[in-house]
Structures are given as C-alpha cells and as structure tokens.
Amino acid sequence: MGLLRLLRRCNYPFKAKTRNRGGTLQHIQNRGFSKSEPFNDKDAVLPVLVVGAGPVGLILSILLTKLVLERNITFSKHPQAHFINNRSMEIFRKIDGLAEEIQSSQPPVDLWRKFVYCTSLSGSSLGSVDHIQPQDLEHVISPVSVAHFSQYKLHSLLLRQLQTLDFQLCAPESSEESERPHERRILMGHECVSIDPSNEIVTVTASSMGMGKRVEKKIHCNILVGADGSGSTVRKLAGIQMRGETDLQKLVSVHFLSKDLGQYLLKENPGMLFFIFNTEAIGVLVAHDLRQGEFVLQMPFYPPQQTIEDFSSKACEKLISKLVGQQLDDINVIDIRPWIMHAEVAEKFISSGNQIFLAGDAAHRFPPAGGFGMNTGIQDAHNLAWKIAAVMKGIAPSSLLNTYEMERRPIAIFNTDLSLKNYKAAMAVPSALGLDPTVANSVHRLINTGLGFLPHGLRKGALEGIFAIGRAQLSKTILNEINPVGSSRLSKLRHIFEEGKSLQLQFPAEDLGFRYLQGAIVQESDNLESTPQLSTGRRRDYIPSAHPGSRLPHMYVRVNKMNEIVSTLDLVSGDEVEFLLIIAPVKESYHLARAAFKAAEERQILVKVCVIWPSGSVEGLNEGSKAALSPWENYVDAVEVDRPSTSNWWEMCQMKESGAILVRPDEHIAWRTSSGLAGDPKVEMQKVFSLVLGII
H or E segment at 129? Predict the structure, then answer.
C-alpha cells in the first residue's frame, strides 16, 4: 500500500538517528527540522500539513500525512477530470484495492474508447477516432490499463481509503477545540490565510466559521504542502509566480443528467467526447457515464458581452437540445460554472528552504487535453511522499527534498507543452470547418476594444451576430460533398483524423516513459541523452528503458517463494522506504548484492534483492540464491514468464546479465551498471546510496 503501513505507525515528526530494525518509528521529542525541545499538546508540531483535499491532497494524505485543510465546507460533485493514465493507475495499485475498484466501477471500455465529431448527436457524422489500441488492454507495457472515471467518484474512493486509516472528516464547529491538531483529520471549511516559515517551523493560520463567528487557529508543521488547486492560496502566500500562457480560452461547464440521452447514445453511437458543430450552437459533450446518463457540456464563453447569468438552467437546457438535435424531456442541470484555461508552471515548487512545497494544480495548470492535470499531480505526490518518508525515518537528510523540484518541475514543463500542442490539435477540427478559434478570439478582442464606446446590449448583439454568421458555414447547403467548399473541408477533416492530427487521448511514451535527468539518481557518465525528447502532440509508443531516472520496465515474473505471477513493479515494496536491487544469477552479481546489503546496513537503509532467472529455470533456483546471499534473507527469486516477445528481461533493458539495476521506492531507477563493476563493489554501493539520498 505504498508507504502507507510504514507511516501509519509514525506518531510524531521525524525519526532520531537510532532506528528499530523492525521498521517501526519510535515516539521522539526531536522535531526533525525543528530544534530539539519537549513535545506538548499546546505547541504540537505536525510533520506534514496538506492544504487542499482534492485528489492530489488526498493521495498524499493516504501515502503520508496526518492533517489536511480544505477551505470548502462540502466536496464538489462536478465531474471535472475523468481520464486516469497508466502511471497513475500503477500508483493506485499500491493502495489497497483502489485500482481494482476503479476498473470494476468504470464504464466498459467500448462505451468510451471513441471521440465522435458531428453536426448534432442525432444528425450527420463528421467522423470518429478510436483511441484504444489492442496493446492498451493486453498489459504488455503496464500491469494495468487506463481508466475513464469521474474525479468526484475517485474522490469518494480516496475518502473511503482515509476512513480505513482512522481519518476523520471534521466540520468547522466540531474541530474548533475538541481534538489535538496532530490527529488524522480533514478539517473542512478551514482556509489558510497566512504562512510564517520561521524558526525551522511553518506556522499556518487557518480561518473558519464556528458557532456563527470567524475563528482563527495556529497550526505548526515541519512541512507544508500546497495542493489547493489552480488558484492556490499557499502559492500566493509564498510569493511564487506562474510562468506560461494565460487565458487561452474561457468556457462554461454544465453538469447535467439525462438517462434518455445516455440510452440513445448507448444504442446509436457510444463515445467519451462528442464534438458538436451546427448553425445554432457549438460545444463539447463529455460522457462521464452513458449508463447513468451523466454528462458535462463545455461551451465557449465570451465575457463581458456574455455573463454567467446568460447560462441559466433553462438556457442550458435549450442549448443541450440544439446540440442533441431533438428535444429531451429529462434534462436535469446539476451545476453551471465558468472556468479559464491556462498553460502555466510555477517558477519553483519549493519555498522557504525545504519547508513549503507545491503539488498538483497549485504547481502547474494545463489545458484539459490528454488528461495531464490530475495525473501529473498524482505523480507529484508519489515522488514527494517517499522522500518525506526517508527524511522522517532518518535515512536521508532534509536536502533530499530539494530533488522534488529538480525532478518534477521539468516533467510539468514538458507536460504543459504536450497538452498545449494537443489542445491546438483539437482546434484543427473547427479550423478545417471554417471556424478558426483564433479568429473568434480576435473578433471578441476587437469588440471589447474597438467598440467599447457602444452600450453593452449593442456589443453583445454584434458579437452574437458575427458568431451566427460564422456558424452559418455549418449549414447543410455548404457542408456537403456537392458544394466545392464543403467537399474540400470534409476532405481536410478526414485527413486530420486519418493522420492522427486531431485531439489525442493517450500518450504512452510520455505517461510511462517520462524520465528524471537530475535529482535523486546517479546518472551514467557515458549517457549521451542529456535532454528529454521533444513532444510531438501525437501518440507515440512507449519503449522500455532502464536508464537512471526512468520508471522500472514492466514484465511478468513468477515469484518462487509464493509461486505467484506478478509485475516487476510489484517487486518494489509497498510498505517500506526500501530500495530494490535487480540482478541476474551470476557470481559477480551475487557479489555486488552482498556488497549492497553491507553498504545499506551501515547506513540503516532497507534493500531487497531480486534475482531474475531466465524462463524455464529450475535447477539451482531454490538453493542458489540462498547459498550466495546468506546470511541476508531479504531477497526474492523471480523467473521470467514466457511471452510472445523473444526478448528477455536484460535484452528489454538493453543491458548485459552482468549488470544490475537499483530501483527507488517510487519505482524509478536510481542507478544501474550495464555490465558489472570494475572497482570494489562495496565502495561503489556506498557512493551510490550517498549520491541518491544526498548523504554527505
């Protein structure tokens, strides 16, 4: 369960230097980053405080922390994000039953694998794109598949996980004075209003309404994590600026239910996204669950000529009917909210030394193209959790936390560029139909500036009139194969779909192949690949890599002790801050493994050795590793499982059998030797652990 069981046993901030070899953390008075002084309830210092109880904040809480502040009194049920990529699902596999529950609860893949383009849901089809390929469901590159699962449903599952860890969901009134701040709680209705990072402790002032009055309380912590969304209060209070492109587009998001529409699409044309273009309205319909009839409609929004009041429930019902192409009697509009699309990354992810951290949308804001927002945030939390845990256990100095920004910020910048390119690919479809979004934005700016002297009503009428003229190009008299203009546009549209130049859903090469080039890794001196590959905005296949900084490749192996088939990713511990050393059953590698055990023992680091045997190995399997590694017992023998591919583990990793791979607790490769070591193995492993963990 990730680092969960380990951290459940941790009651206070950071571990003293002496350590229980069984893995439990002792009650201590030393506050880790703070100066050593007696611990008392009145002046308690939390190890970690998370601000924000969205998916990123809750994932970090499950992996690590004990207290969460959430400014809202209730959680939103607006679906928002809905695509969970391979890497996030792999992380969820480490949390008891979470990935399995998502997979069993999501709609069948055949109901959401397509993007559909049409003039109306009951009208002419302009084309469709199937975004699921056979290998996506065959678990060749990952032990788990992607998922289509609404954010609020994920949120409910995460809250349930926290309840199993004795977390309490507290209303402002119930949390005022009744409980100590170091107990596991999610404090609802508490807003972070000030931050004071001084004396090696961060003091957070939280404001809430209690008993009809505004109440403020001080909360002291060693580490503060801002996971409080795109408008992050923590980011603003820390004085961290965002960099990138702002205000790409303004939209209105309409959450509604219609079982009639869901049943119609189930029968006629199931899909995930429906891009609808007709003379009366333009919008993107997200089918969160066709079986339940749950949808979100995204429509362009042009203030100040348009206001949110223009999108009343009745007005939205009419717009939905226009996009459907027929009247629906069971439309139930749940929520209507405006939002602005940005493509920005925080100038830094760490502030005040290594005391304040940003994660998720607080650190990066992407266009919703490819599902990178929530997924990148979940991976932020996964990266940060093991490093905080290593510091808490006294395994590493606090300087290890600096590698969080070194590793995650370049990935956020890369994903921003990729999602921006994917968003622009989405705009290629309306452009091909004669509805260039950049022209619409230019018209809007012109009306705002050039016609600013006109009354609001006239400016609004001018905008609607110009847009109506533009939408007229979608009429049947123009958009058909007989009309030369329409025929040319439809032909261009087909080429966009056939060549994969439209909006893409999956990016396996980026989802699984992202790589840290500096940070808590030991880079190879002969590695010529010093910069990440540029994104194309199109789907590319994932190619397994064992370079330092890469996620450990997936292959199925049979674990001899349990006679169970697992992924190589499952060999990484889910319960400890433990490194995994992968070797082949050869004399030199056993020698290296013994040296790793000795070096790790001296530094009080947990290491497990995995010996990967070729497929079909029997002789020597039961006793070979035992004799070679005794007296150490923290090892596992694993046999490759036969598969269609002829490559074995070491060939897939592009390494020799005499090589070795050291894997971090977050399943990324910390170090490797491609073909054995020339020098003293123990000296080399001491150096490796020191470099990875920042031990001087």
Answer: strand 125-130
Q: Is the pLDDT of residue 288 over 60?
A: yes
How do residues 125-183 score in pLDDT, each as one tens digit?
999 999 998 888 889 999 999 999 999 999 999 999 998 888 888 877 664 544 444 56
Task: Using alpha carbons, select from 29, 79, 20 the residue that is nearest to residue 55.
Answer: 79
Note the maximum CA span of the chain: 88
Parse the chain into domains and list their residue ranges: 4-79+151-243+343-422, 544-693
Amino acid at 190: H
Write the pLDDT tens digit of every residue in 49-99. 999 999 999 999 988 856 787 777 777 777 788 999 999 999 999 998 899
What H or E segment, with its residue span, contains residue 253?
strand 242-257
> Which of 53, 12, 5, 52 is closest to 33 using CA atoms?
12
Is pLDDT above 50 for 38?
no
Beta bridge partners of 202: 197, 221
Using 50, 70 and 90 to split pLDDT, how confident is the model at 208? confident
What's the CA gap between 311 and 76, in Å, rounded? 20
Beta strands in 524-618 (DSSP E): 556-559, 564-567, 578-583, 606-613
CATH dotted code for 544-693: 3.40.30.120
Six-digit token string for 684: 């080399």
**Fold adopted by 4-79+151-243+343-422:** FAD/NAD(P)-binding domain (3.50.50)
677 vs 671: CA distance, rounded Å:
13
Which DSSP state fits 453? T
Q: For 506-604, where are the E strands, in sequence order? A: 556-559, 564-567, 578-583
Calpha distance 136→151 (Å, rounded): 22
Q: Summarize the confidence of residues 593-613 as an average pLDDT.
A: 95
